[in-house]
């Protein structure tokens, strides 16, 4: 059986943990060569050591930097072109949520959040676009259900996420037919911030399954649980693959039924 990504090159930002790492692992399993980046150099080295052992070091390229450093992003793109000669898929995965209401979100908080959410999309897309056009490739952005279903305690992030979704829709029109642009809209996935909140739970005797189950019930998730990073990765891999060749400008809801909008 031909692997979906055999002969293809994927780039994943925020690729050393959570959904980013799950995506890197899945793409490698499906035959891709993968370039990943993340801010933490130590963790990135550990991750690449394991991935290289399992899939071959020649199929990996890793760099540690912030995606808000435009020069570093351009250098990363140049390294990918030198090492692999192409880029077929860009997965923009950097960023996390900010808990704040309108009343306690300051000017600098607003600027920082918009800067992170928008430029973590803009800089990688700008840097990799020439290769993506040549390959007639795809961009998949990891966004949040907050873009359509905002929450008052995450007003700043919700607003920025909506801006990102509008940007992606605009790009899907501008870049067609050469590059497809889609996104996944995440609800609650058991990685990143939720893992940290679990570690800081008030009742330390409560297990992860119990705590996540209570959280899912309190949020009204119809499937009754948080998502797994591998489930988000599967959606990302699908949208970036030839199986989704007639899909652009779309968003795939990966929220366990939490979405209420139509």
Topology:
Layout: E1 9-13, H1 18-29, E2 33-38, H2 41-55, E3 60-64, H3 70-84, E4 89-92, H4 107-135, E5 138-144, H5 155-174, E6 180-186, H6 193-199, H7 208-219, H8 229-240, E7 251-254
Parallel strand pairs: 1-2, 1-4, 2-3, 4-5, 5-6, 6-7
Helix pairs in contact: 1-8, 3-4, 4-5
Descriptive overview:
It is a single chain. The chain is of the alpha/beta class and 262 residues long. The protein folds into two domains: 9-187 and 239-254, Rossmann fold; 189-226, no CATH class. The protein has eight helices and seven strands, in the order E-H-E-H-E-H-E-H-E-H-E-H-H-H-E. The protein has helices at residues 18-29, 41-55, 70-84, 107-135, 155-174, 193-199, 208-219, 229-240, and strands at residues 9-13, 33-38, 60-64, 89-92, 138-144, 180-186, 251-254. The protein has a seven-stranded parallel β-sheet with strand order 3-2-1-4-5-6-7, with helices on both faces. Strand 2 (33-38), helix 2 and strand 3 (60-64) form a beta-alpha-beta unit. Helix 3 (70-84) packs parallel to helix 4 (107-135) and helix 4 packs parallel to helix 5. The longest helix has 29 residues, at 107-135. It is globular, with a radius of gyration of 18 Å. The termini are far apart. The mean pLDDT is 94.
């Amino acid at each position: 059986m031909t692997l979906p990504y055999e002969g293809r090159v994927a780039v994943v930002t925020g690729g050393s943990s959570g959904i980013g790492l799950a995506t890197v692992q899945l793409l490698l399993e499906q035959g891709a060569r993968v370039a990943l980046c993340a801010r933490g150099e130590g963790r990135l080295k550990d991750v690449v050591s394991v991935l290289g052992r399992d899939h071959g070091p020649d199929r990996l390229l890793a760099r540690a930097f912030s995606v808000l450093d435009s020069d570093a992003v351009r250098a990363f793109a140049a390294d990918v072109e030198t090492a692999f000669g192409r880029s077929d898929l860009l997965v923009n995965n950097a960023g996390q949520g900010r808990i704040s209401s309108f009343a306690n979100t300051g000017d600098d908080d607003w600027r920082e959040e918009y800067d992170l959410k928008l430029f973590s999309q803009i800089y990688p897309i700008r840097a990799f676009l020439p290769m993506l056009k040549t390959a007639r490739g795809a961009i998949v952005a990891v966004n949040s259900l907050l873009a359509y279903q905002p929450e008052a305690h995450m007003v700043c992030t919700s607003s920025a996420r909506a801006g990102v979704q509008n940007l992606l829709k605009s790009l899907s029109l501008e870049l067609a037919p050469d590059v497809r642009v889609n996104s996944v809209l995440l609800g609650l996935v058991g990685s990143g911030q939720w893992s940290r909140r679990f570690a800081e739970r008030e009742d330390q005797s409560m297990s992860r399954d119990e705590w996540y189950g209570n959280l899912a019930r309190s949020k009204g998730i119809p499937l009754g649980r948080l998502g797994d990073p591998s489930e988000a990765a599967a959606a990302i891999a699908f949208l970036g693959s030839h199986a989704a060749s007639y899909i652009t400008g779309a968003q795939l809801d990966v929220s366990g039924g939490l979405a209420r909008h139509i």
